[in-house]
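Fold this sequence, please.
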Amino acid sequence: MLTSVEQRHRGKYAKYCSCTANLSNVSNLSTDKNSGRLQCCGWVLVIVSFIFAILTCPLTIFLCVKIVKEYERAVIFRLGRIADRKPKGPGLFMILPCTDTFVKVDLRTVSFDIPPQEILTKDSVTVSVDGVVYFRIYCPISAVTKVSNAHSSTRLLAQTTLRNVLGTKNLAELLSDREGISVSMQESLDEATDPWGIKVERVEIKDVKLPQQMQRAMAAEAEASREARAKIIAAEGEMKASRALKEASVVMAEAPSALQLRYLQTLNSIAAEKNSTIIFPLPIDMLQSFMQRK
C-alpha cells in the first residue's frame, strides 16, 4: 500500500515525464521543419543557379563545362554535399557556377621516400633506416571526405609505422629479412589507410646505416671468421698432402726405379731454377747399398 505522500510524488513525476516527452517531440518537429526548409532553400538556390547559367550561356559555358583525364576523377560538392554520391569522369561533365565546387583526385600510383629515421632495434642498436612507399587512391570520395590531406597523412603514417615495425626486430633480422619487414609494413599501412580510400601497393627498405663502431666490430668479426676458415682449409690441405706423400713413399719403396726417376727430376729442377749452382750428381748405385742395409 502506498501512502498519500508517495502517490502525490509519483503523480508529479509522471506529469514531469509527459512534459519532457512533449518538449522533445516539439523539438524534433521543429528540427524536421528546419531541415525541410534548408532542403527547400537549397533547391531554390540550385534552380536559380541553373536559370542563371542558361540565361548567360555564352558567357558561363567555360565555367560550367569541365574536363578530367583518364586517370583523374572529380568529386562534386553541391551546397556542401556530394552530388550523386559518386565521382565524375573521365571526360566532360557539367557544374553549376554558383552552387557547385569540385575536387580533382589523381588515381595513379604515387611514390614517396621515407626520410632516414633513427630507430632503436630490439637488441638496443641505433640504426638509420629509410625506405620508399608506393600507394594509390581507389576511392576518391573517401580520400576527399575522410582525411584532409591524403598524401601528407600517408607520409606521416609511413614514418611512424617504420619506427613501430623495426623497433620489434633485432639487428640480424633487420639486415637479413628486409623482404619480410617490407611485407609487414605494407600490411600495417594498408590496414590503416583503407578507411581513407588509399591502397598501399608496396613498401621497400632502401638503406640501413649502422654506427661507425658497429661497422668496425662487424668487420673485425667477419675478418676473424675468414681467418678461421683459411686456417681450417690450410690444415685440411696439409693433412691431405701428408697422406699423399705417405702413399707415394709406399709406391716408391715397392719400385726402386721410381725413386731413381724422382732423383733425376729433382736434379733437373734444381739445375733449371739456380743456374749458378754446380751440381755433382751422385750415382744412384752407390745409394743402393745403404738402402739394402736398411
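The chain is about 60% helix and 20% strand. Confidence is low (pLDDT under 50) at residues 1-10, 12-38.
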